[in-house]
Amino acid sequence: MTPVESDHMIIWGWTGLSHDASLSVFSKADNLKLLWSAHSERYTRVKNDAELNYTILQEALQWGDPQRIYYYENPWWKKTRQLYAGQYNQLTSISPTKHMRNFYTDAPRSQYTSHHLSHAAAGYYTAPFNNTAVLVIDSIGEWNTTSIWSGRDNKLKRKWSQNYPHSIGIWYSAMTQRIGLKPQEHEYILMGMAAIGDANKYYDLIKMDFIKQMPSLKDPRTVFKRNCHRGCLDWRTDLNSEQDYADIAAATQRIYEEILNILLISAQVLTNQENIVIMGGCALNCVANSQAHKYFKDVWIMPNPGDAGSSVGCVLAHEQTHIKFSSAYLGHDIQGEYPVKDVIQQLKKHKIAAVASGKAEFGPRSLGNRSILADPRGSDVKDRVNKLKKREPFRPFAPAILAEYASNYFDGVTGPYMQYTAKCKQPDEFPAIIHSDGTSRVQAVSKDDTSGFRKLLEAWYAETGCPMLLNTSLNIRGEPLVNTRQDAQRWTKNYGVQVCLPK
């Protein structure tokens, strides 16, 4: 990594102080360019770390000292909501500028952007189209919980929003906690569990106990009967079996999909746009996301749509310019040639393989540079990988496939970032990557992708005639993804699976 030329301005954007701290580095001369983005947790090895640290700051400084720093929300607006919510212990929290200067003394003062604008901008200004609707759904920023925007000619205009305490994201997280999982972290497990539950069993009960008003085209608000910000562990404590939890998950997911469906139509009506961008933490719900293609010509979800991705968005909100976003490989670089032959050798021995090579993915999903890989055709592969990762048996694994073959094996929407689900046409042939409902969260790797991972898939296809691999994140439940060469070496030692590294 080399510093940017001195005539370029260096700009930082960052998130943190509540959860998922991240940092992004831009350069600006005639054009704005995203150089690097990374999650703080990858350096501290603390899952969802809310704070910055010296290591991530030092890596960012390799590009040069920043002349501007932007922060992803307005902490003073947030404090008014915290006061309203009775979160008195958070009112004395450290300012973003002071926190940054704890690690980087000469940091310029952080300039603030509103939370939902950061989300909207991260999606809009990285999208492959200029005119679009933008839908943001998350737990909460300062006050907004859901918002619809119109993006046109490099400008974002808010068309509608809903405020705290009515929050789809908070409710979904509360239901995650209610079934014994960790809120603000394990929502994706609830989504996966939904496939093995009966959505009908508790659907009416959940709607009756939690929802006062479902959204409509006349009024897109979802009005809740109770504030779920402090959870709902007291709700129906008699429902405590594993099957109850699965049925609650299924009903919760169905209700969320119904709400999203109305919001998508509302976004179309309010903006009169044929494209849509979906952002916020709820945009990680790949099962629900697939609905968007019913209403819009093109759909874009930036591969890091949650709060961490707003380290990109807060900069773009100020600069108001589209950037070329061609890859999620933006983080720490394990330099050297991608170890294609080493991985193939492991896979041909019917072993679980792992790889850490090139730049780390910016986002929650491994896309081939920090991945555990396996042959998707083996009948015992799913169980072996689940045992290694200490995961529940119902959890699905994603296939990574050469994009030109995706339609041969899957029916539905596919994309490069595992953001949608599609039905597998030959489920019996690929049991390792099929979920209980017959779907797969497909990563389609295009011919235009010049990454080492594309070369690996091509080599695997040439060897076996199979154009796909099981691809899951190189971590163990509760741990961040492997980041550095040293992390990979420790992982090999601790878990007994050889992580292939560049020579």
Give an overview of the whole structure:
With 503 residues, the protein is of the alpha/beta class. It has 3 domains: 9-116 and 320-324, 2-Layer Sandwich (Nucleotidyltransferase, domain 5), CATH 3.30.420.40; 127-301, ATPase, nucleotide binding domain (Nucleotidyltransferase, domain 5, 2-Layer Sandwich); 330-500, DHBP synthase. It is built from 16 helices and 23 strands. The chain has helices spanning 41-44, 54-60, 75-85, 96-103, 115-124, 168-178, 187-193, 199-210, 242-271, 286-289, 310-319, 340-348, 381-389, 406-409, 452-464, 485-495; strands at residues 9-15, 22-28, 32-39, 68-71, 110-112, 132-137, 144-152, 155-163, 211-213, 223-224, 275-279, 298-300, 329-334, 353-356, 358-361, 370-374, 398-402, 410-411, 422-424, 439-440, 443-445, 468-473, 499-500. A 6-stranded mixed sheet has the order 21-17-22-16-14-23. It has a 5-stranded mixed sheet with strand order 3-2-1-4-5, with helices on both faces. A 5-stranded mixed sheet has the order 8-7-6-11-12, sandwiched between helices. Helix 6 packs antiparallel against helix 9. The longest helix is centred in the middle third of the chain and has 30 residues, at 242-271. The two termini are 18 Å apart. Residues 1-5 have low confidence and may be disordered.
Unreliable stretches, pLDDT < 50, 5 or more residues? 1-5
The computed structural class is alpha/beta
Note the main sheet. Answer: 6 strands, mixed
What is the overall number of helices?
A: 16
Strand content: 15-25%
CATH-defined fold name of the largest domain:
Nucleotidyltransferase, domain 5
- Widest sheet: strand ordering: 21-17-22-16-14-23
Shape: globular
Q: Rg to the nearest angstrom? A: 22 Å
CATH class of the largest domain: Alpha Beta
